[in-house]
Structure formats: C-alpha cells, structure tokens
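Exercise 7. Predict the joint structure of the components listed below.
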Amino acid sequence: MPVITFREALGQAINEEMARDDRVFLIGEEVALYNGAYKVSRGLHEKYSTRRVIDTPIVEESFTGIGIGAAMAGLRPIVEWMTMNFSIQALDQTINNAAKMRYMSGGQFTLPIVFRGPNGPAEWLSAQHSQSLASIYTQIPGLKVVCPATPYDGKGLLKSAIRDDNPVIFLEAELAYGWQGEVPEDEYLIPIGQADIKRPGSQITLITFGKIVKLVLSAAAELEKLGIDAEVIDLRTLRPLDEQALINSVNKTRRAVVIDEAPPICSVGSHVAWLISNRCFDILDAQVELVSSEDIPMPYNHRLELAAQPSIEKILTAAKRTLYI
Amino acid sequence: MPEISNYDPQLLKKLLYDMQLIRRFEEEATKRYGLREFGGFLHLYIGQEAIAVGAVAAIDLQKDYILTAYRDHGFALAVGMDPSSIMAELYGKQAGTAHGKGGSMHFFDKDRHFFGGNGIVGAHIPLATGVAFKIKYMSEPGAVLCFFGDGAIHQGTFHESVNIARIWKLPIVYICENNQYAMGTDFRRVSAVKDLSKLSCAYAIPGSQVDGMDILAVNEEIKKAAQLARDQKMPTLLECKTYRYVGHSMSDPGTYRTKEEITQYRQNDPILLFKDKLIVAKIITDADFDQIDTRCKDTVTKAVEFARTAPDPPTPAMYEDLYV
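Solution:
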C-alpha cells in the first residue's frame, strides 16, 4: 500500500471529488497560484484552472459567506481557512448562516459545504495562532465536525464530508500535514459519525481525537510497559458524536481518561467526560479524568507551550489515578 | 423620468395593487401584534413599498435572484409568496412559510429565487455575492439583486463583497435602501459621505441615487443595472432614497426624529404618488383604487383568519429541518 503524507491524502480527496462532480470547487486564501499555504491544494489550480480553484482577498467573513451563498444556490464549495484561528473572523457566517439557513427556512435549503483548515496548537506561534477551537464549532446544532488523526482517516473522511449535504467543519493540524501513513490506491470512504478503536485494550479507555491520537497511542504503549492494557478510542467525528462506541468501550474497561488539546472549560473533552459519567455511572470503577491544555492562552516559549498541553506524563498520571496505582 | 405611457396599463395596476397589499398587510400585522397575537420583532416596510415592488417587476425570477435583510415582508409579498402562509409564519404556525421556525425576519422561497429574509445586518451581502458566483460558475443568464439598509453599508461584508464582485466580474446589483435611520441613528451621523452611492467609486463600479418613493424610477434603474450585470458582468451600487414612517421595530419610541418630518414624508407617500399619477394618466379612477384597496383588505382578512386558526407545529417538528 502506498505511504503518503497527510497533506497528500487530503489533496487526493479534493482532487478525486472535484473530478467526480463539477459542482465541487475550492476557495480560499493562497489556494490556487501559491498551491496552498500548507500545500494541501498542490497541483489543483493547474489541473482545474481559476474557475474551480479560486484565490480570494484576505476577507474570511466574505469568502466564507460567498461559499455559503453558492451552496444555497446548488454548488458544493470547499472553503479553506488558512488556519482555524482566522476562521474566527468568519464565525458569524458559519454559525448564523451555514448552520441555521436550512432550519430557519423550514428545510428549503441544503448546504453541501466543507470548511477546512488546521486547528489546535502548533509550535512557536504564541496565542493567536495556536489554539484548539473544536468546541466552538461542536457546540453549534446544524454543523457537523470532523477531526481526523491519520492520512488514511483524513482522506476517507474528507471525501465523505465533500459528499455530505450538510455543512461540515473539517479540522486538520499544521504539525500533522507532513506525517506519513498508508493510504490505499482504490477509492474508499469513511462515514462521518463513527469513532475508531485505534488500539484495542481491556483495562482502561483513553478517548481523544485529532493529532494527539498519536501522543495518546504513545501513552498507551507506556502503560503497556506497566502491565496495563489500554484501549484508545479516536472520536474522528465530534458532531454527531459516536456515543455508543464510547459507552461500549467504557462498559468493558470501567475506566476512562479523556484527552483534548483545548483548555478544559466547556470543551469537547469536558462534554465527553460528562457523557461517560452520566451513561456509565453504575459500571465505572473510578472517576472520569480529563487531560486538557492548561486554562491559559498559548505561551510563545517552547518549553512553556509544551508544558501547557497534554503530555504523555499527564496522561499516565491521570490513568494511574483511575487505576488507583 | 420614466414615461408612464411606456408601461402596460395592466402592469401599472398590478404594481399599485402589490404596494397596497404590502401596506394593508403590515397595518393589520401591527394591529395583531398590538393585540399580542404573536410577538418577537416586526420590522415594518411601510413607506418603502415602491422599492420591493418596483424591483421585482424589473427582473425575471426564473433566472434572477433576490436577497434582503430582516425588513422582508414587502419582498415576500412582492415575489408572490402566499399572504396567508406569510401571516401564518408571523403567528409561528405549521402552515407558515418556514413551518414556524423563521418568523418575521426569515421569509424564504427557494423556488421563487427569494433567498431571505436574513437577520444579521450585512451578513447576507456575501451570500448574495455567492449566489452571483454560482450564476457565473454555471454560465447561467441571471443576475442577483442584493438589498440592505443604510446601516449595513458600513459593515465590512459590504466592502469586501463589492470588491470581490468587481474583480471576479459577478452579475449582481447592490441596492442600499436608505431609509435614513439605522434603528435610531441618522445615517448622516455615521457616514463619511452623504451620498452613499459614491461608495461605488472605491470599487470602480457604477453607482447612482434613485428616488425610492417613485416606483417607476426604481423599476427603470434596477432594470438597467440588472441588464448591465447580466450582459457585462458589471456590478452596480444603487442608493434608493426612501423613508420608513414607523419605528425600526415595534419597541422603537421614535425620539430621534420629529413628527413634522414624518408628516412631510407622508405627503410624499409612494402609494399615493403613484395612485395620483395613474389617475391623471386616466389609467384608473378613484373608484378603481377603492376596489383595489378592498381586494387587498379582503386578502389580508383571509390571511389573518387562516393564520389564527391554523395549528401550531407539533413538538417533535422542532427536531426537523436541521440536517439533511
């Protein structure tokens, strides 16, 4: 099976879906002539021309709204936000227009649109350019939110997102674009709304999503050295959440640690921790733990920024608490 | 000045009827709101009817599109949506245009190419630009009319969208309905220019002011601008000078302007002006107008009867229309 990078896997997904459906187009800052700020769209402008791969001025609110209007009128836009940090400029469009237009119109409009870009902490970027905004989007009814952890999942989920008739927020990560993984040559789709067991285990469930799935798998390997068999669940989709997959796992292991790159208040992680506490109350052998980023903006200093985020040590400490060791 | 003799008399009568229907509809809605038969916001279009009716008559909604903001009852009626369903939506009923999920600010009719009914000031200007993008992308023959108020023209979305429409050559007409007050703020207090159509200069597109109280002037200017958009993919900015007689919404005390000013504008009423013009041109008589008015009142009475007696949506319906 070919081994390719995350950015290549995402680029393949866009390319295949553009070839499949003329209504699919890519719009955003630097997506065309520059081949994308993170090179996800490399080669697409050359293949599809300026009709379908479209550079915009630096106007997140308006090019996001233009995508939404085009979707209301029947096209299938992929809106690239250079990073999710800049998507804050477009929050009104996403929350008030994309998420609500179908509902407010009594079901008259469909909005087949994908908003994608890198989310979460990167490196040496300070507070405005290094933050997880997953919870902001996940809180909004009317949106779907997807956050893949591997090139394989990235390609299969992005293709599903582009074919979905609802607005989908697709969260990538700067630090993961160069990661490599096996991606089949034959076409495949991964359905939105299904979590994935990235490592089966029996004694504790570690639940996470996005680029830190890798970190959590390393933590699980450390736990194995201590003789603890951890299951790692990758949510993959944050909305709609695959609640049953979480409940099934925790009913088996009776212990759970949730790991999320965002600060701890009202986060996807805190919601998942509540959900497990509520649904698995009778079977839990310990309190549910949440490992989050610290409740601060991201500092610039590299040592401090690492200290602000979930780490293997923090995960092990939380896991040991639930295991009373 | 547009020549009345260039118009089909039947069309002129229809325009008068459509304006009067909006007027009577909103007068009745105000009354029912006052009786607390429904609540929420109710942004009235009274005084501005010539713009929506003149605009709809200027385009072909088989291929063209219209978007507006939250002062949208007039547009909903002008594009031909059923008055009873519109009234039922004000009452929040299942038979309403959005099954009771939208209300006064959110009328939509996808089939009639009326894309709302948008509640956030200036936020639909990119949407309209996106619809124009679709027309160009699919090589279709239409154009988009995007209406907004003198408050919205200072939003970034307006400036960002007009710039993009120009550089991408999108078929769209941006139409500012300058009713002179953004809620309680006189537009002269918050605008660097008094002639808002001059903002077109910054984006190298045509711009002009239109007498928004003269339905035929509105109709002519929008026809020309829409044709320019369709044929040459050139956007236009039109500023329709108009006036709303009533408050921004129902809770507006109106302390920011004088009674004399309102009285003065009422003498320049778009419906009365047009009616007088048609009488002078011997296209209608006073009796004809009375008949038109009676028809409008009957339609509105029926709409209220329908809306009041229609059932609420069933509770489980609140989960519908969210995802496909």
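Discussion. Chain A touches chain B through 40 residues (CB under 8 Å).
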